[in-house]
Amino acid sequence: MIVGEFSLGTPILTVNESGRHVLVGSRCPVCGDVRLPSRTLCGADLSECVPHELSGEGTVYEAVRISLAPAGFEAPFWIGYIDLAEGPRYLAQIEADEDAPPSHGDRVTLTVGRLGTSAEPLLGPIFRKVTDAH
């Protein structure tokens, strides 16, 4: 089973010491800029960036329902831009019920699930709406 996604040769999804899947980006130790996917050098000051584990918490900036899926995926499903708590905006699949679609401002959290329908399972980041328990 393949876990994660690679960008610029670096995995963005990994398992931390506590056994939890996390997104890993980069952070500039000088200016604090956080990026996902990670960068070797900071775009603002050219300092060498360090790996940075992200919380996986964020809010939906925009979402769209995919009704005509590309090869290897089953429609319908939702994708959208997630504004992560640490600052980066990330495009990802969003898990949602048909009667409660994701919308701007919804709080979401990272889960890991199977992406697509290929014979070789690919696990990747999927965001789920946070429900307030009352």
Automatic annotation (TrEMBL):
Residues 52-111 form the ChsH2 C-terminal OB-fold domain. It holds the Pfam family OB_ChsH2_C. InterPro entries: ChsH2_C, NA-bd_OB-fold, Thioester_dehydratase-like. PANTHER family: BLR3430 PROTEIN (PTHR34075). This is OB-fold domain-containing protein. It comes from Dactylosporangium fulvum.
